[in-house]
Structure formats: structure tokens, C-alpha cells
Write a structure and sequence with these properties.
The chain is mainly alpha-helical. Helices cover 77% and strands 0% of the residues.
Amino acid sequence: MADKKTASLDDICESMKQQLLILVEWAKYIPSFSELPLDDQARTADAPVRYLERVFCELRERTVM
């Protein structure tokens, strides 16, 4: 491994966005997910994003200090 690329903030945000889109598309194929009310579907799909945001904020705080 000669070259290491460090992810920028934009890279991380774009990756999170792509992962969310993949998650939503995947969830559409789960029969019980599609039977949930739309609000519940949105909250369920949003949960991993909220988790990643918390992790990202904690990492950012550590690197700033």
C-alpha cells in the first residue's frame, strides 16, 4: 500500500448519502417494511443515518481537540 487517501468531509457525506439510498432501496423488498405506515418507514430508514451522524460528530470533535 503505497498511497493512502484520506476521506474529506465531502467524501464522508457523499458516502453516507449513498448508503442511505441503498438502505431504502433494500428495505423496499422486505414485505413487512412496505406494510408499515409511511411515517414508520421513514423513521426506520432514518435511524442508521442518525447513528452515523452521532459517530461522525464525535470523531470530528476528537480530531479538533
